[in-house]
Write a structure and sequence with these properties.
Structural class: mainly alpha
Distance between the termini: 22 Å
Helix content: 55-70%
Strand content: 5-15%
Radius of gyration: 17 Å
Number of strands: 2
Oligomer: single chain
Length: 110
Amino acid sequence: SDLTRQQLHYLKVLVKMKNPTLTELAKELNLTKPTVTVLVDKLAEKGYIRRVKSDEDRRVMHLYIDKKGAKVNALRETAFEKMAEKIRSGLSSAETAKLDELIRKVLNHS
């Protein structure tokens, strides 16, 4: 894809958050709103996300994943799953359990 690793991460966060506002995304990523605006602009330009005005407050924009963004995110997840399967194939069940625990710990802090 034409996305950087950082943009892929942002896309993953957007999927997880389910249509956040710009403010919510900035808070989740621990970034300023102007910084997040730049990244959202780039993802929107490339057709991965779209902005939709809120029904309750027309000043608020929610960020939605477009089909292209959903497809890239699904491919990313599939690639990670295949890589994990390959790694696990050479491990014992105890080692696999420990690896799963460590991966969950890393993912919860990223």
